[in-house]
TrEMBL record:
Annotated positions binding substrate: Y93, G100, M101, D102, R103, T181
Record keywords: ATP-binding, Coenzyme A biosynthesis, Cytoplasm, Kinase, Metal-binding, Nucleotide-binding, Potassium, Transferase
Organism per entry: Stutzerimonas decontaminans
Catalysed reactions listed for this entry: (R)-pantothenate + ATP = (R)-4'-phosphopantothenate + ADP + H(+)
Source species, domain of life: Bacteria
Free-text remark on how the cofactor is bound: A monovalent cation. Ammonium or potassium.
One Pfam family in the UniProt entry: Pan_kinase
Protein name (Swiss-Prot/TrEMBL): Type III pantothenate kinase
Keyword Kinase assigned: yes
PANTHER family: TYPE III PANTOTHENATE KINASE
Quaternary structure annotation from Swiss-Prot or TrEMBL: Homodimer.
Residues engaged in binding K(+): D122
Catalytic residues as annotated in Swiss-Prot or TrEMBL: D102 (proton acceptor)
EC code(s) of this entry: 2.7.1.33
């Protein structure tokens, strides 16, 4: 089995693939290293013969995680590192090492699908948008707060906005005017996020022409996957990780 890990700022996504089949035998999203070790130990035990990881966390935190995983699984953990080009994509950042590795691998994974001009959206702690032209040239991108950050800022910087997430009973994509604080905040934040994505799609023609693919991934992808032309690919980062660490 191969263990793959995508360490974002909120969750450590993981999945275990069969070595020969490439099929997903197990997967999860852990909020802490302790949870991760418990979840993985409970699932695969000694079957893991390889591990590969991508992280946007600090080097020290990532080093500690890799060491812990090596202790528990008895395998070295291969880590995806920044590169100027990979899988036909050319990194468009002035300093390629500055580009978030999750963004980089999501683009690399997405480009393998149709090798066409594309927009890649990742809705996680932050919402990132990256543009790649039909030649695989990364034009750059955008970073904005994810829904949890938008909500959290209101809760922590105002005196009268305070409710628990359990109070959020409506479906996650209601945008009618809110008639209580919870609805007003949840729907306001949702519209900000959807408006950001829609305006990105509207302006992208200028950079990519009219015919570009739109791929979306990330824990909050359900908030926008009804927007026309958006193709939801939950494992984009893992697809890129397999190219970075074959
Ligand atoms: N188990 C969960 N508990 C709470 N929120 C979750 C969970 N899974 C996904 N989410 C949602 O997904 C978002 C995190 O998505 P993710 O792509 O994992 O972020 P990151 O890559 O930044 O760690 C959160 O903002 C939250 O809205
Ligand atoms: C923008 C990000 C924080 C997104 O991370 P995530 O929301 O997945 O936790 C991450 O890609 C990152 O740390 N990037 C480095 C800065 C940059 O990409 O310019
Ligand atoms: K992410």
């Amino acid at each position: 089995m191969i263990l793959e890990l995508d360490c974002g700022n909120s969750f450590i996504k993981w999945r275990v693939l069969g070595i020969d089949t490439g099929l997903v035998a197990a997967q999860g999203a852990s909020a802490s290293v302790v949870d991760l070790v418990n979840e993985i130990s409970g699932v695969v035990g000694a079957d893991v013969i390889r591990a590969r990881l991508v992280s946007v966390r600090g080097d020290r935190e990532t080093d500690e995680l890799c060491l812990r995983l090596s202790e528990v699984l008895g395998v070295d953990v291969e880590r995806a590192s920044p590169s100027i080009q990979l899988g036909g994509v050319i990194n468009g950042y002035v300093d390629h090492r500055q580009l978030g590795m999750d963004r980089w691998l999501a683009m690399v994974g997405a480009f393998q699908l149709k090798r066409n001009a594309m927009m890649v959206i990742d809705l996680g702690t932050a919402v990132t948008v990256d543009l790649v032209d039909s030649q695989g040239m990364h034009l750059g991108g955008y970073i904005s707060p994810g829904i949890a950050l938008l909500r959290h800022q209101l809760h922590t910087h105002t005196r009268r906005i305070s409710y628990s997430l359990e109070d959020i009973t409506t479906s996650r994509r209601v945008t009618a005017p809110g008639r209580c604080t919870t609805e007003a905040v949840e729907r306001g934040c949702l519209l900000m996020l959807r408006g950001f994505v829609s305006s990105q799609i509207l302006q992208a023609d200028e950079y990519l022409g009219a015919e570009f693919e739109i791929y979306a991934t990330g824990g909050d992808v359900a908030l926008i996957n009804d927007i026309p032309r958006i193709q939801c690919i939950p494992d984009l980062v893992f697809r890129g990780l397999a190219i970075a660490c074959p």
